[in-house]
Each structure stands twice: as structure tokens, then as C-alpha cells.
Amino acid sequence: MTAALFTPYSIKNVTFANRIVMSPMCMYSCEAQDGKATDFHYTHYTSRAMGKVGLIFTEAAAVTKQGRISPEDLGIWSDEHIEGLKKIVHLSQEHGAKVGIQIAHAGRKARVDGPILAPSAIPFDDGMKTPEEMTKQQINETIDAFREGARRAKEAGFDVIELHGAHGYLISEFLSPLTNNRNDEYGGSRENRYTFLQRTIDSVKEVWDGPLFVRISADEYNEEGNKIDDFIYFASEMKKQGVDLVDCSTGGIVPAKINPYPGYQVTHSEQIRHGAKIATGAVGLITHPLQAEEIIQNGRADLVFLARELLRDPYWPRKASVELNAELEPPKQYERGWN
What we know:
two-stranded antiparallel sheet, 35% helix, globular
């Protein structure tokens, strides 16, 4: 029997060679602080394609200059970014990988000069700036910026777009009652708190008809925050709008003590997958091939997202194929040393 981890997976018109995904990870490597890709990015992402990762996500790319997590992050707020992103895509695709981009706005967690924006004027902690509460005009401009980011991603040739709705950045700030105390149509009830993401998805889909993922923080680690039932509701609404997969992370909304253990976030993926009847991705201290295989084999997620493990070993899929006795075709140039 073929290992489940190495079975292809199709969404819309895109097929991933296997279920292994490189999770978006900030690299803080745009040395000119202009959001443009560098030689580091070309080497970093291409090496995982050579290692036979099925789907490779770039780090979060900011849809506005003001919305960067850090000044060294990739950007997608300007047409000037398209050329470098296109090169990342081309170099990875020619080795058989599909390539996704996570588009994002950091909200109150932006570490940049000047004012920062959020749903409400609540700082993340005592060491960070107090954001300005977004006006309706600023909300509309930001939704437009997500659409323009999606347009640029399409022009760059990406196979998948993921909206970053996790880790306490702007979209998740709108979703959470811990960070959203607005009294207009964007705040209050969970239906209202979903409005910003709803309109962002609709806006992105005006220019993008390929696979669309959304990353969420499915546990806010706070009694006053959203619960799993809320995230099943959000995921159900996303499915109605045509979102293809929910990428289930946790935390980052407010300061919290988290005690991670191997696979500690997989339960959230499983609950949302079955509760909302939508495809999910599992992430969080997934390091061992048997662990990843169990997740896919038992229907706990449709894709397995690896982060630090792929920093340690760009050729982790080869290691997994050997351990799971699965066939994995090597790059032609590596055939004599693959097995």
C-alpha cells in the first residue's frame, strides 16, 4: 500500500505530488527593506523543491508597506515585487513543486516606523506600539490591498494563495473578541467579526480563481477568546465563500504561555475538518515521518505543514519516503546518491 503521505492531492486545477507542505516562515532577509526577493530567497525555496516538498509556501508577504511584520519581510504591495517573486516560483516549479504565497497584514504586531493600524486601539503588550483604530476608509483600502496582492501573486505565477488569518495579525485581530471591540459592522458578534475576512475573501476572488487557503489560530489560549466552535463557524463560512483549505495553527493573538508537544495542534485540524467539512492542513511540531503518515492516514488533515523540520533538513521528504517505504523520484542529477 502506498503511504498516504505520498499520494497526490488535487485542489481545483492544481495537483500536489504529495501531502508535504513547507509552512510559511518569516526569513527576515530583505536587506534593503524594500520587500524584494534576494539571492537568499532563490536558494532557500528552490532547495526545498529539489528536496521534493509537494507545496512550498513563501513567507508572509505584506500587502501594504505599513503592514509588514518586520522591515525585512517580503512584500507584495507594489508591482516592483512581481519580478523577484516570479523567479522564486519558476525556480521551484521546474523541480516539480507547486508554490504558494501567504499574503498578510501585521496589524497591531507590525514592527515598522510610523503609525500602525488595527481593528481597535489595543497594543499587543507593554513593549509594542498602540495601534490606531482603523477607519472605514482604511478598512476598505486594506481590503483593496489584499485584492491587489492577489493580482500580483497571479501575475508572478503562484499556484496557491493563503490569507494569513492567524497569529494575532490583522485578520485574526478582527476575528477575535480579545482584539476587536468595535461597535460597527466589523465588531461585536462573531458574525460581525467575520465581516473583514468575508470581504477580503470576496475581494481576492475577484482576481484569483486558483486554490485559496486561510491560516487561522484555532486556539487563542484565553478563556475570553474564540473557542473551537467559533472556528468551526468561521471555517464553515469560508467554505461557503469558496475557500479550499483551512491551515490550522494556534496562538499569537494575545501573550500566552503555551506548552507545545509533538502534534499539539493536530486536534484542531481534525475538529475543523469534520465539523466544517472542509479540507484542513495540520501544523505544529510535526517532525517524524510516521507521525505525518498517521495524520493523513487517519483523516486528521489533508495536508501536513512542516516548518522548523524543513529548515533542519530540506530533503526531509526523501527521509520520509525511505522510512515509509514509498517511492519518491529524485532530481535526475541526484539519482546516484538518493537511495
